[in-house]
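Interim report, section 4.2 (structural modelling).
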Amino acid sequence: MNLFDTVLRCVATLVVFLTLPLVIGQTEHKVMAHMQGRLGPMYAGGFHGWAQLIADGVKFAQKEDIVPAGADRRIFQLAPAVSLLPYLFVLLAIPVGPDGFVGQAIDAGLFFVLAVMGVGVIGKLMAGWASANKFSLLGGLRTAAQLMSYELPMVLAAASVAMAAGTLSLPGIVDAWQWYWIPWQIIGAFVFFTAGLAELQRPPFDMPVADSEIIFGAYTEYTGLRFALFLLSEYVGILVVSALTAVLFLGGWHGPLPDQLGWLWTLLKTFALAFVVIWLRVTYPRLREDQLMRFAWTVLIPLALVQLALTGIIKVAIS
Amino acid sequence: MSAAALLAATGPLDPAARSFLSPTGVEIVFLLVGIAVLGSAVVAVTTKQLVHAALWLVAALGGLAVEFLLLTAEFVAWVQVLIYLGSVVVLVLFGLMLTKAPIGRSPDADSKNRWVALVVALASAGTLVTLVVDAFRTSWIDLGAGGGSAAVTGASLFRTWVLPFEALSVLLLAALVGAIVLSRGAGRRVPAPRSGRIRAGRPVGSNGTVAQRAAAAPPAEAPETAPAEES
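Predicted structure of the assembly:
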């Protein structure tokens, strides 16, 4: 029974992993189009082009899988998996509703999530190096530099929530959440969400994959399914970062409806944040590489430290 | 730290109450992962492909994280992943790719010191194995679930082992300051640009101002960015 329960939870996580990113992708098509005064995909599937991403998937699967002659074959082929799989493991630990509505309850869940998300960088570095292409290498290096710099404010902001809740377990953090955490942790929420956006290399932090300057960074040489896997990892990343921000800073399943409908609140908050991610992409121009670094080291890290100090002071004052 | 946390969590050592000849599933997995870690560590130091060496290091360190998990030291396992896989190896890869990372073999990757290194490695491995075997002998440590959770690890770290912990953090701070001092290169410091030499607004390549600007601009930027990148 216990084993069956575990397997069921893993399968459910896998289904979420395969469907919700597509929903986010389709939303991005449509939201971006309407913000730019166009219609977006309209034909595939009939109603407002709902099947566009499925058609894209079929197209990717049909394309030839090319490995460049000068590339390091094995590492080139392994890189998309290394980049994608960490997000699957992270999804397993994100709580959706109260009373064990979570893939796997992990004691140090917050730590687990941050640790595993950091491993995805290796995949992008591998892709950039193994492609034997100078643009790819540049993109890989930029990715690594960016992710290293933005991981620190992200961890600090998450540490502030863990301090406020007095636990590292994600369900425990949501359980301890009160409404006044929103004004209390607002700086941390900003830092966490921004750093998460930068970890995903979404615009305005998309210098590592800047298509008009270094083609597509580490993914220049990829075609077909392997390229689709990198794209999928970006959309799963949006899901993970939005869900984590919702769980840590916006109270997860807390809301005016009874607890049985808590999962609805988590989903709603996650998708609202995913919408913001798309919105930011349409709104802001790309930051230059040095601006990216300066923003991380001179704005986000001091802000995160301020939040940490604030959390500590208030925590001592109210306990 | 892990052994200390485990010991603090599990209490006094009992003499062997179980046989070592009927291993459980966890023990078999532990052994297999250990062999995989050893194998990838050996490949990491013997391969002639620089970047592959760093990636084998990823395999070895990730395997160690699995070992920590199997010993119920959950928190230490995630720290291992966050620090070693997410940061240290990425930094190594980054450094390699910035300087010299050809695809394929690098024939000059061998060092003349490898025999000395082998001797040192074998000696330290021998010392450690002897020490651990002698310290624990046949005692049986019962690893209850949650024995290495964040709460237990934190309590033992900040109650029992707080002095070594703080001493280590001072050591790391000293290393950090030292790295910054070394990377600034006191001996070959470029003099600061004198004011009035950089003429802005001239067409590029007009009469040598471009060369002056190229020579003068980097030192002016360096003090701003250098400390940030070290830490």
